[in-house]
């Protein structure tokens, strides 16, 4: 894929007191380049329980290609492409929610637990242009995965 039409890709998940932080970090790492640094912020929930927010921002083209290659493995990639108009907002951001448990097991599925937000390059910054660019990037990543 020669061009990656994103400014950056953010991935974020929460680790609740009932979860093993190392396992949650491994689930997030599933979508990131090797040895990618994950930011960690500790917080307290409404009932005083510990919540750790794990996040990463991928800003390099090579790093974003790694994330896109993982997304290409989605068994429901056709569904994502069909819903692209709703998954890209008026600020040219593309959103997906991924299954945290599946990611820990090395699988890529839509679900709960990991939020992906990608800022789509679009000139001019219009919804339609952002949708077209996101579609191109996802389709190209899917094509690379088939080769």
UniProtKB/TrEMBL annotation:
SUPFAM superfamilies in the cross-refs: RL5-like
Superkingdom, natural source: Archaea
UniProt xrefs under NCBIfam families: PRK14555.1-1
Descriptive protein name: RNA-binding protein
Gene source species: Halonotius aquaticus
């Amino acid at each position: 894929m020669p061009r990656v039409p994103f400014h950056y890709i953010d991935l974020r998940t929460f680790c609740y007191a009932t979860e093993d932080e190392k396992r949650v970090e491994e689930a997030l790492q599933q979508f990131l380049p090797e040895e990618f640094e994950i930011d960690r912020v500790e917080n307290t929930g409404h009932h005083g329980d510990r919540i750790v927010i794990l996040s990463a921002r991928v800003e390099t083209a090579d790093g974003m290609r790694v994330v896109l290659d993982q997304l290409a493995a989605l068994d429901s990639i056709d569904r994502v492409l069909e819903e692209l108009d709703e998954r890209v907002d008026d600020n040219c951001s593309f959103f997906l929610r991924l299954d945290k448990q599946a990611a820990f097991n090395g699988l890529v599925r839509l679900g709960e637990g990991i939020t992906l937000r990608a800022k789509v390059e679009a000139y001019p910054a219009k919804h339609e242009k952002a949708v077209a660019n996101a579609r191109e990037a996802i389709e190209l990543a899917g094509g690379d995965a088939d080769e």
